[in-house]
Design brief:
single chain; alpha/beta; Rossmann fold; 2 domains; 13 helices; about 35% helix; about 15% strand; globular
Length: about 375
């Protein structure tokens, strides 16, 4: 199979979808790997590294036109919509439940779109979202601590405090992978950490692995309203796979927060879990609403591309190999986890949460692709 790797052109996106090591593995399996020129530069992988791995360096037109399977990190942006075409399988983070124009562009093009973030195992794990969630969670606590500094618009609180001065308070909404990793870094900085979570079983697990060092509280609207009043940093870490994030914090609730407190909305890719959130970039990461600083960078792991690219390839390569070795139809028939990643097939929306988000017709995947192994 011809596998293409496109260069990311979204603002402040430095990751690339495949490392040279990953390219080498695919080449050794007999596949042709096409790398758009300079695609790896942001992650410190020059074209020469890919050439030594056996890949071919090509132009942007060639990578989109010749590839049968195209790998990206971020969703196509508007200027790339014209490159979407029938017969191409796109494998990338899509987050289309929060992006109606992209959803329609994918459907209109006839492309097959497979989303990293909705590949889901039978036990509800999200193996391709997990590494970026780990990184985003760790960055969230760092960002919160950084923007609490007074010259940057924050309250002027040191999260870790000092002897004789109480540490700052971090509130984490959601105890999944993002929430856990946010808590780990916030604890390491010396903050007082509270996690609001709805699953009692998950709270028991977090209490065990965090050795009781965080406060774990059942999440509810009333509890959120109460807890944000004490917080210096609030981290939004909720996720409904493939669907828009729920709006847990309304604008009215901001009035309960301390002036200069910081919100970090890690769920912004899925629409954000704060009513006042809108996407920002690494170049212009924050804005203020009602005296509360909002950090809503939509590609947080893109700020640490060397780490992120390696972690992403570690997770995605087995699935890329499945598709390349077997073709998409056989690959999804053999692997239900991968099947759950398919969002759009030749004009049809085959992921129910996406169809619901945009009030579009839902078509079960088995109606367009056979899901019984050949």
């Amino acid at each position: 199979m011809r596998i293409g790797v496109a260069r990311e052109i979204k603002t402040d996106e430095y990751r690339v979808a495949l490392t040279p090591a990953g390219a080498r593995e695919l080449v050794l399996k007999g596949h042709d790997v096409l790398i758009e020129t300079t695609a790896g530069d942001g992650s410190s992988f020059p074209d020469s590294d890919y050439e030594r791995a056996g890949a071919e360096i090509v132009s942007v037109d060639d990578v989109w036109n010749r590839a049968e399977l195209l790998l990206k990190v971020k969703e196509p942006i508007a200027v790339e919509y014209r490159r979407l075409r029938e017969g191409l399988v796109l494998f990338t983070y899509l987050h289309i439940a929060a992006d109606a124009p992209l959803t329609h562009a994918l459907a209109d093009s006839g492309i097959v779109a497979v989303a990293y973030e909705t590949v889901e195992t039978d036990d509800r794990r999200l193996p391709l979202l997990a590494p970026m969630s780990e990184i985003a969670g760790r960055l969230a606590a760092q960002a919160g601590a950084h923007f609490l500094e007074k010259p940057l618009g924050g309250r002027g609180v040191l999260l870790g405090g000092v002897p004789g001065v109480a540490p700052g308070r971090v509130l984490v909404l959601g105890g999944g992978i993002v929430g856990y990793n946010s808590a780990i870094i916030a604890l390491g900085l010396g903050a007082q950490v509270t996690i609001l979570e709805r699953s009692i079983d998950r709270m028991r697990h977090l209490d065990e692995i965090l050795s009781g060092r965080v406060s774990l509280v059942m999440s509810s609207t009333l509890q959120i309203e109460s807890s944000i009043a004490d917080a210096d940093v609030v981290i939004g870490a909720v996720l409904i796979p493939g669907a828009r994030a729920p709006k847990l914090v309304t604008r009215a609730m901001l009035k309960e927060m301390k002036p200069g407190a910081v919100i970090v909305d890690v769920a912004i890719d899925q629409g954000g879990c704060f009513e006042t959130s809108h996407p920002t970039t690494h170049t212009d990461p924050v804005y203020t609403v009602d005296g509360i600083l909002h950090y809503c960078v939509a590609n947080m792991p893109g700020g640490v591309p060397i780490t992120s690219t390696k972690a992403l390839t570690n997770a995605t390569l087995p699935y890329v190999e499945e598709i390349a070795d077997n073709g998409l139809a056989r690959a999804v028939a053999r692997d239900r986890s991968l099947a759950r990643g398919v969002n759009v097939v030749e004009g049809k929306i085959v992921y129910e949460a996406v169809a619901e988000a945009h009030d579009l017709e839902f078509t079960p995947l088995e109606d367009v692709l056979p899901l019984a192994p050949a």
